[in-house]
Specification:
By secondary structure, the protein is mainly α. It has helices at residues 5-26, 31-38, 40-50, 57-68, 71-87, 111-122, 138-157, 161-192, 199-218.
Length: 221
Amino acid sequence: MQKNKEQMLLLNGRYSLLRIIQILFQEPMSHEIIALLKAPETRACIELFSIENPDMDMFLDKLDEVAASDSDTFCNEARREYNMLFVGPGKPAAPFWESVYLDERELLFLPSTSDVRMRYAAEGFMIAGNEKQAEDAVHYQFDFLASLAWKMSEALNAEALDELSRLARVSFDFESDHMLNWLPKMAQRASDHSTCYFYPQLCAFAAAVIDFDSQLLKEIV
């Protein structure tokens, strides 16, 4: 498998990008997360991929807004938006569980959730945190992809090309069978809601990242 320098740079950078998105979805806004958004390393990581995908440029504009905003005000408003869109109280506008988007009843713990669970187990991946939360939550899915990306980076640097191809196939299949089927729908529901402070842009960014990442992975599986 031939890899050019640009492709190798992107493959090694995937872990950081996927981990950043996982952290941003995992819990409501905090001053620690704001520090992550303002960090030069975060911007550099996103810029690496936005060069390849102009659809991601909008999130860089959002980082500029965060850097220029009052941290306390931004934190409070973003926390309210996070709860309104994703978790409640009340019915969330854009729930961040896959199964909600695959069945008109919008239920949790459907067969798709079981398939996600089995794919985690096949790679020895265990979720951390609230065990009562469905495994197909967006932050768990990005956590899973980030863990595979770390292993892929190790395989790439060790020139273990068979393992690199296997992990790329696992990642590509997971994105194709799961994330590509519902992240755009979550992004649409978030953008349709009256709030537009931070998280609708994050949802659109996450969907764009997975769309681009699946194309990158397809080149090496």
